[in-house]
Backbone:
């Protein structure tokens, strides 16, 4: 009896451990999903339309739960509803929820394309398709024993009172014979992109309450549904709370900078480059948060541009007037600057090529080195000639210069490409990095 009792205790403790282990393998940060790509129904004068939205709050899998296929998110809140958007007054109104069908079917088969809508005067008519036989096994008849009966019905909801009623399917069948219109992305972007989350029925403090410190971590770590945090939580933050967040973000910047410099430039260039990108992106993210907090930036862009130009001149890089400032990003350890040539007529291109060829030849005589992937012809008596600069797309030429004595490193690149509007342009970029050594 003693042995059996011990075995039962071990099994119980093991079961508790497995449950706790699996439930703790999801992120503590809530993410938001809103899908609105289903059927749409306009009223007669096109001043309002009804549509279907599927919303959820979920936590992403972490650790062992991500294997082998990325894992399954843990849903903390789900809703499947029909909304009405008033175009004239830009108001979103919740009409009726369809959760009795959405939740009970484990949403394995029920999609927004299987729901027909028709808006006539003050009434919205809607009808759902029956599930296929092989999907019926997924329906939870314990929680909704009348599922199949209810899904066979046709419904009408008053758009003013939100009262729902069952109507005669045969009598109103003709309403759903016309071709259904789907919610086009352009309509979604035009009308629904700026809707407050509360109008979607999402109140994060009620649906998934967390501590104030956790809400701060969303912003510091840049994870989860940050937009909801800014809409519903940040207005309650004090000046001291915001200062604490920015201070913590600056600490994180220093940690990322250390991680970047721990890797050797020559032995692990790929991982080092990834860490640099992570560091720089986080600094940009910090600046965005400061703007949202209305914290003034300490960087004077014009002064920084002049400073960068002086630095380039010190390295024998003279920027011609045809190249204009495109982007400048300054961080603690250096800067990245990009110039752009937008005049792509043949005369401008030839001038640009000649300037670049002469500069490259000059730099190579001053301890600069070509990157291994650089596409150059062999030097001739006139210096370096670029191979088919005009023809290759998204390929770049790179030169590097390292000065260990003065602890700085430069990378220079040229890129010829097209943007989304098929506009041709040259980019000339310089990255100067000041090398710091860390004892640990």
Residues:
């Amino acid at each position: 009896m003693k042995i059996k009792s011990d075995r039962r205790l071990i099994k119980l403790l093991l079961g508790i451990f497995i449950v706790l282990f699996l439930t703790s393998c999801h992120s503590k940060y809530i993410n938001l999903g809103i899908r609105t790509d289903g059927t749409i129904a306009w009223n007669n004068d096109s001043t309002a339309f009804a549509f279907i939205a599927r919303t959820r709050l979920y936590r992403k899998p972490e650790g062992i739960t991500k294997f082998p296929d990325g894992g399954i998110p843990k849903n903390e809140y789900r809703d499947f509803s029909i909304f009405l958007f008033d175009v004239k007054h830009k108001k979103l109104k919740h009409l009726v929820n369809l959760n009795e069908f959405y939740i009970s079917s484990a949403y394995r088969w029920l999609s927004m394309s299987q729901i027909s809508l028709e808006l006539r005067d003050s009434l919205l008519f809607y009808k759902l398709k029956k599930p296929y036989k092989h999907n019926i096994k997924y329906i939870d008849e314990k929680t909704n024993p009348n599922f199949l009966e209810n899904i066979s019905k046709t419904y009408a909801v008053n758009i003013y009172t939100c009262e729902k009623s069952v109507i005669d399917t045969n009598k109103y069948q003709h309403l759903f014979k016309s071709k259904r219109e789907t919610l086009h992305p352009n309509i979604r972007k035009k009308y629904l992109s700026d809707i407050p989350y509360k109008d979607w029925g999402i109140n994060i403090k009620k649906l998934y309450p967390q501590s104030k410190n956790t809400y701060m971590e969303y912003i510091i770590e840049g994870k989860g549904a940050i937009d909801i945090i800014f809409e519903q939580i940040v207005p309650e933050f004090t000046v001291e709370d915001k200062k604490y967040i920015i201070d913590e973000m600056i600490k994180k910047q220093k940690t990322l900078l250390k991680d970047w410099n721990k890797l050797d430039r020559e032995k692990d260039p790929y991982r080092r480059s990834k860490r640099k990108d992570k560091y720089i992106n986080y600094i940009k993210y910090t600046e965005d948060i400061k703007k949202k907090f209305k914290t003034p930036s300490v960087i004077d862009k014009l002064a920084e541009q002049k400073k960068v130009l002086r630095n380039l001149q010190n390295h024998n890089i003279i920027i011609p007037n045809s190249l204009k400032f495109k982007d400048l990003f300054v961080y603690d350890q250096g800067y990245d600057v990009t110039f752009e040539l937008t005049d792509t007529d043949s005369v401008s291109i030839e001038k640009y090529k000649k300037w670049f060829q002469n500069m490259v030849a000059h730099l190579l005589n001053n301890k600069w080195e070509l990157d291994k992937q650089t596409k150059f012809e062999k030097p001739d008596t006139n210096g370096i000639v670029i191979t088919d600069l005009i023809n290759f797309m998204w390929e770049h030429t790179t030169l590097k210069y390292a000065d260990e004595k003065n602890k700085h490193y430069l990378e220079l690149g040229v890129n010829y490409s097209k943007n989304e509007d098929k506009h041709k342009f040259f980019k000339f970029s310089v990255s100067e990095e000041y090398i710091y050594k860390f004892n640990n």
Q: What stands out?
A: The two ends are 57 Å apart (CA to CA).
